[in-house]
Design goal:
By secondary structure, the chain is an alpha+beta fold. The protein is built from 14 helices and 23 strands. About 30% of the residues lie in helices and about 25% in strands.
Length: about 425
């Protein structure tokens, strides 16, 4: 079993390059189904989740070529015929569900197993299916699967009860080949949604309003080939910002878009972290006195739920009382118990975590309960006394490209072992 060992107490220095966003590239890979032609993704983050979704596409007869040296993915979906992907692959990762919209748009039907993913709480698919139904699809459930049939999709006005990223993306992809105009109201406005719209438009789609709460899609007959580079990963960037803060270090973080990081930057500055923009880089100086803050996760442009665990690691050693409230997922405090093993003083009260900062954390044996929890434990380990041994690190590999190598280059003592 692979584990990560972190020796704490080391100051970091230098610069780190941020990879393309996992949460942007996954829907882009799914959207490649729509054209029935070739799509070329450059500077792709070659993560476990990326490999899983490309295997999902292979299971419906897509031709996928991954060039690891160039970090390129070339996908040819001209030979895709099946509308029922491999169920075992789908159950590995929730993002597999993103192929529903492209399949019902291009083929008029799909049949897919209920998917898996991180165990961070209920993430119902009713909004996705509500959107497909509004476009004219007939949806039904079987034993462990859902299927839809639509001889043709017709544009419609769709209001989402919650601004779900996945539902917004799936409905947008379904609508690009429909007849007429589709309007998605209360749509998610995350940068990854905007990036998917940019990719679809590069293939000839007609999408406007992405990045706002109202997205308009005018259906087109077909889409063309495209070469595309996804946006930088704002969550990886935020994680390295916290790495600078929690180790009282100064780091230069390259290849970021400041406008995507505003809520993270605002909270870190409120804590006392110094930050300075320099071109497409941000210089983060954590060698300062910190103060406690309150954080409430919200849909974009609010504070991202995917940064909640990492910030909790930092607040665990900030003197005073901080309160973190999670409004997106009801089961996303599992990392609190692991941080408490390291000496953190955290009390969970419903959807809020009350954190009393301690002087120091102590290395311990812990487990990554989900992707971002794993990153939080690495961060805590960087600041802790002694050694921290992290298990279940397959979660971390789902979302961070070469995280150990990047940290080692910054001066961290971190390694992966087989135990």
């Amino acid at each position: 079993m692979k584990k990560i060992i972190v020796e704490g107490g080391k100051r970091l220095s230098g610069e780190v390059d941020i990879s393309s966003a996992k949460n942007a590239v996954l829907p882009i890979i799914a959207a490649s189904i729509l054209s029935g032609k070739k799509s070329r993704i450059i500077d792709a983050p070659l993560l476990q989740d990326v490999y899983v979704i490309t295997e999902v596409l292979k299971s419906i007869n897509a031709n996928v070529n991954i060039d690891k040296s160039k970090k390129e993915i070339i996908i040819d979906t001209s030979s895709v015929k099946s509308v029922e992907p491999d169920s075992e692959l789908v159950r590995k990762m929730r993002a597999s569900f993103l192929i529903m919209g492209p399949m019902v748009a291009r083929f008029g039907r799909f049949k897919i197993s209920l998917p898996g993913g991180c165990n961070i709480g209920s993430r119902p698919i009713d909004l996705h299916l509500k959107g497909f139904t509004a476009l004219g699809a007939k949806v039904s459930f079987g034993h462990g699967h859902v299927e839809a049939y639509a001889p043709r999709l017709i544009g419609n006005k769709i209001y989402l009860d919650f601004p779900s990223v996945g539902a917004t993306e799936n409905i947008m992809m379904a609508a690009v080949l429909s007849e007429g105009e589709t309007i998605i109201e209360n749509a998610a406005s995350e940068p990854e949604v905007q990036d998917l719209a940019e990719f679809l438009n590069s293939m000839g789609a007609r999408i406007s309003g992405a990045g706002t709460d109202t997205i308009r899609i005018v259906g087109v007959r077909e889409l063309e080939e495209s070469t595309y580079k996804p946006i930088p990963d704002r969550i990886e960037a935020g994680t390295f910002m916290v790495a600078a803060a929690i180790t009282k270090s100064k780091l230069k973080i390259n290849g970021v878009r400041e406008e995507h990081l505003k809520p993270i930057i605002a909270k870190l500055r409120e804590i006392g972290v110094c930050m300075e923009k320099e071109g497409d880089s941000i210089i983060v100086d954590g060698n300062n006195e910190f103060k406690p803050v309150d954080i409430k996760t919200m849909p974009y442009p609010g504070f991202p739920t995917d940064m909640q665990a990492q910030m909790m690691s930092l607040l665990s050693i900030v003197k005073g009382t901080s309160i973190v409230t999670e409004t997106i997922f009801e089961n996303r405090f599992m990392h609190a118990a692991e941080l408490k093993r390291m000496g953190a003083n955290i009390k969970i009260d419903g959807r809020s975590a009350i954190i009393e900062g301690v002087e120091r954390l102590t290395g311990s044996d812990v487990k990554a309960t989900d992707l971002r929890a794993g990153a939080a434990l690495i961060l805590a380990g960087l600041a802790a006394d002694g050694y921290t041994k992290i298990g279940d690190i397959y979660h971390i590999d789902r979302g961070y490209v070469d995280i150990e190598e990047k940290l080692v280059k910054l001066g961290a003592e971190i390694r992966r072992i087989d135990e």
